[in-house]
Amino acid sequence: MTAQDVIADLTAEAEAVDRMVADLDESQWTLPTPAEGWTVAHQVGHLAFVFRIAGLAAGTPEAFTALTQRIGTGFGAFDKAVNAALEEYLVLPREALIARWRAERDAGTAALAGVADGTLVPWLVRPIPAPVLCAAGMTELFAHGQDIADALGVRRQHTDRLKRVVGFVVHTWEFGYQSNDLTPPAEQFRFEVTAPSGAQWVFGPDGATQSITGSAVDLCLLATRRRHHADLDLVATGADAQAWLEVAQAYRGPAGKGRAPGQFAKPHQLA
């Protein structure tokens, strides 16, 4: 996967989030989302900030390095920086915040598209390939876009662009253990999931005794902690895989409260 392979998918997913918020009125802009204390405006401001720093990392690495030196290293420091940065977005009127989100989204995407294949981009813990940072951005859009959709009562229509997010979930399968001070199992899991199109996506070794099967959308909802595993149609085979359902997360740092069992209907109950 190269940055150019994923950049069109990143752009399309950002535009899908934009369509959800473009025509909201002031009352909808302040609707609470399932993320405690965060409104729709918080979610949009957060996404704008993520694209802003991704653009710095990809386009002006020295500016990104200077920023991280000011806020400190690691994801705990990043969380504090995000919360502090939100304040500058939340004071903006609705139209100004939408404009800011679009400008930083477009600038960040353009910077990522300009990274040469094989070039590492500085990031919060260590440098990473630009395609991985693109996939991380798509995971942010999936997660915070879901919070917005839940606040608005909108049912999202996913495409096979989701494969980028599934790949990132598989790539970061150990993060939940790290966040809970647990030792990851030695054996890598196998993931067999069904794409929105009905295609089958398989990750992980043949013959693995620990596996996760089910919907690709549900796997992403689980790993972004936007749904409790009890409300998803995922099957874990093996004790380690079953335990992973409790801790799965596709991001470093504190897990947060996540979503409670029964908070949302299972997907098939919405049909």
How would you describe this protein?
By secondary structure, this protein is an alpha+beta fold. α3 crosses α5 (75-90) and α3 (40-59) packs antiparallel against α7 (130-152). A hairpin with a 5-residue loop joins β3 and β4 (200-203). The protein starts with a helix and ends in a 24-residue tail after the last helix. The strands form two sheets. Strands 4-3-5-6 form a four-stranded mixed β-sheet. The protein contains eleven helices and six strands. It has helices at 3-21, 26-29, 40-59, 61-71, 75-90, 94-113, 130-152, 163-171, 175-179, 216-223, 239-247; strands spanning 120-121, 128-129, 190-194, 200-203, 211-215, 234-237. It is globular, with a radius of gyration of 18 Å.
Layout of helices and strands, plus pairs?
Blueprint: H1 3-21, H2 26-29, H3 40-59, H4 61-71, H5 75-90, H6 94-113, E1 120-121, E2 128-129, H7 130-152, H8 163-171, H9 175-179, E3 190-194, E4 200-203, E5 211-215, H10 216-223, E6 234-237, H11 239-247
Parallel strand pairs: 3-5
Antiparallel strand pairs: 1-2, 3-4, 5-6
